[in-house]
Amino acid sequence: MENTHRVRPKKQLGQHFLNDKGIAQRIVDSLTADDADAILEIGPGMGVLTNFLIDRFGSKLYAADVDAESIEYLKQSLPALDKRLLLADFLKFDLSSITTGKMAIIGNFPYNISSQIFFKVLERRDTVTEVVGMVQREVAQRICEPPGSKTYGILSVLLQAFFDIKYLFTVSEGVFTPPPKVKSAVIRLTRNSTQSLDCDEKLFVRVVKAGFNQRRKTLRNSIKSGFNGFSGSHPLFDKRPEQLSVDEFVELTNYIASNQPMP
Q1: Which among 5, 135, 237, 248 would be 20 to 30 A from 73, CA to CA?
Q2: Contact 86, 93 (CB under 8 A)
Q3: pLDDT of residue 42
């Protein structure tokens, strides 16, 4: 006789399973995916989001998890998704193996890799047109905040350069198993019209990181420290990094590029 016992997936490091179907439906409804050729769910776990996603997106849906037990559980509970259930680490996964077209990403992201997920999305911004993710509330706030906020930082600047970002709603601790010690939040990233920045983009990233590595100092001091003693007279040097918009970081990048040969 076939063994039909379904093994409950174990909680992975940094992941808390959502158990509220109302919240799950709300998350799925937040994804528009208007021009997406494929939808990828990251970390489906026990499939609370997956059930709603497959009803809405059908054969466009793929799900990737590093946990073999989760994949096996979903193969049994959602057999229609079988061939599109991927035992894979998103951070190492080749998105082009799913589609060479446009992709939307959704998920209850494990806390410990949520920032890394967004950095990969940034790298694949020509493919990924939309992201709806549930993350730790502090991470969500950091990504969404405008210049001038104390939580505005490296990820805020880099993502806001290429995506329109919206904080959608806060999620309480009690809707997870096991409950986390902090609140979560759902945010949406939508690819904007910026194809490239009007500067050396590698240098731009270096300038942003150098600025926020010493965020309590003015940019004059942090850039000097991060760029081999570089000094200049640009008025932006008198500001702190959290005061600069994306456009101002572009302006600062171009100033540094034109005033010091880069190694």
Answers
A1: 135
A2: yes
A3: 97
Using alpha carbons only, give the angle 187, 193, 100 rounded to the nearest 5 degrees.
80
What pLDDT score was predicted for residue 177?
85
At 9, the pLDDT band (50, 70, 90 cuts) reads low
- Residue 1 falls inside a structural domain: no
- Tell me the CATH number at 236: 1.10.8
Q: Based on the domain organization, do 227 and 131 belong to the same domain? A: no
Q: Which domain holds residue 245?
A: 201-259
Q: What is the mean pLDDT of the chain?
A: 91
Q: Are residues 130 and 63 in the same domain?
A: yes
pTM of the shown model: 0.90
Quick check: 160 and 144 in contact, CB under 8 A? no
In a domain, 125, yes or no: yes
